[in-house]
Amino acid sequence: MGFLTDLVGELRLDLAAHPIDRSAATAAAGDQPEPRDAVAALASAAAADGVALIAEVKRASPSAGAIAAQADPAGQARSYAAAGAAVVSVLTESMHFGGSLDDLRAVRDAVDVPLLRKDFLIHPDQVLAARAAGADTVLLIAASLDDGALAELLTAARDVGMEPLVESHTDEDLDRVLSTDARIVGVNARDLESLDVDVEAAVERVRRVPRDRIAVFESGIRTRDDVVRAVEAGASAILVGETLMRARDPLAAARALLGRREPTA
Predict the structure, then answer these.
(1) 55 sits in which H/E element
(2) Which of 93, 163, 167, 242 is catalytic?
């Protein structure tokens, strides 16, 4: 047992006690404009900058505690977009990360780039709720889903026009993800059970992702050197949260990760 197992167990109980109104979520999802194309955004940014940035709005985490509990999600996202982030990720899990779908809605109103709902999704109705709140893509964590559930949620996302980011954090997870036709493959350096980070192991896993997929390196990115190492291993994109949320100037911090010079007056 560990963090992910415990959280998913809690989530199953909560969804059973407080099910999502599927009819309302379906109607609200249908009222949204067409989802922005996260695959195209990531591919275009990687071609232009050598790597695409998925910049995350993240108030807290179980490993780091409070990071920026009073952060303004919309302002943070505007800084990310101005810096050149291809996608903005919004952590919406409330109990351990301090997020909410209201954070996602606020960010949706603030920026035009594709939005990723980052949460622990185990039921298709959560995918509908993400689309209804303005998400353009969602995170699916392989370790929290058996093969049948993973296929079901992949289909649920694509049924509403979203291509999900499918995440692995072990060799076995990656095997399962690569056995699907997921176009965006996440490699998380953090073990979601122990919450330990092993960048070396993640670098080796990134090398295994075929080049016709978008490999996203997650966790452990703090400096431009970390970015370069991930790219040299085969990453097309990086997902960064804590480093940017702690930065005094998130725009400058995001530009530094992308290797962009500050604009001159």
Answers:
(1) strand 52-57
(2) 167
- pLDDT tens-digit series, residues 106-143: 999 999 999 999 999 999 999 999 999 999 999 999 99
Give SS3 for 198.
coil
Question: Is residue 58 annotated as part of the catalytic site, yes or no?
Answer: yes
Query: Is residue 261's pLDDT more than 70?
Result: no
Q: Which of the residues 61, 100, 144, 188 is marked catalytic?
A: 188
Alpha carbon distance 23, 26 (integer Å): 5
Concerning whether 188 is annotated as a catalytic residue, the answer is: yes
pTM for this predicted structure: 0.96
Catalytic-labelled residue, pool 61, 100, 219, 236: 219
**Residue closest to 110 by CA, chosen among 72, 70, 77:** 77
According to DSSP H, which parts of 94-198 are helical? Answer: 101-110, 124-132, 147-159, 171-178
Active-site annotation holds for 152: no
Please indicate whether residue 112 or residue 60 has the higher confidence score (pLDDT): 112
Tokens in use for 254? 């995001």
SS3 22: helix
The two tokens of residue 174 are 């990656």
Q: Which of 93, 163, 218, 242 is catalytic?
A: 218
Q: Which residue has the tokens 């970015």?
A: 227
Using DSSP bridges, classify how beta strands 65-66 and 60-61 pair: parallel, antiparallel or unpaired: antiparallel
DSSP string, 78-103: HHHHHHT-SEEEEE---TTT---HHH
- Confidence class of residue 262 from pLDDT cuts 50, 70 and 90? low
